[in-house]
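Question: Hello, beginner here. Any chance you could explain the protein record under this note? Any guidance would be welcome.
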Amino acid sequence: MQAARPPGDPDASGRALEPGDTNSVLSKVQRILEAFGPDDETLSLSEVSRRTALAKASVYRLAQELVRWGLLERQHGDYRLGMRLFEIGQRVPRQRILRDLTRPFMEDLFQATNETIHLAVLDGLEVLYLEKVSGHGQVARPSRVAGRMPLHCTATGKALLAFGPASLADEVVAEPLPRVTPRTVVAPKLLAQELQRARECGYAVEFEQTRIGYMSVAVPLRGATGVTVAALSVTAPTARANVDRFAGLLTMVGRRVTKLLSVQDV
């Protein structure tokens, strides 16, 4: 069995374990649930034990309780995340309000561009995708609802950085910036220049920094207090890149969404 990971080391999903009592029951439950990565349909007991560095007996005992609560399900002897997690997740107020309010506008953007539309929020130092509208054969990865990406390489992340507090950008560049593709900007000074251009233009752009062959344009969405609460983007193959058109449509929709958000508590 693997040695236990120290706090701050990434788990199987790529997220860092938080400092604290790693032997508490809640900590163990957290490690079991977060053992499931974005591409994992099911995991065996042995695999969960390996990823969490917990004894099989401990994983089995806690997993049985999680199954009873509906947070995990059994399938052919393996485990998968349960529908109860999905049900609880739909009750998160900020996620529900943003998604329900923005979804009709995302559908309008999709009809106008025939390209993939994303709604994302800041969670820690990552972009968390709340909603996605796309057609058949359009970009499937790396984005997905409830998926995460680094802030510095995505258009939505750059919009959140450019129009968020200065301390956020400082925190991002305090650590090495991972290179997602050969075109990802990983130099803090170059990232700062991109963010300044975004502020001047009112929107952020990335070309092949997240996925080769694709580009994105994103605008910030502001809440009742004027603080940036989310970002909305259009993602398209570079062969169909039309920054001015995408930015114009996003800016128009962004104003409408921001006006509606101004009366919501998000």
Notes: The longest helix spans residues 93-113. The chain has two domains: 25-88, 92-261.
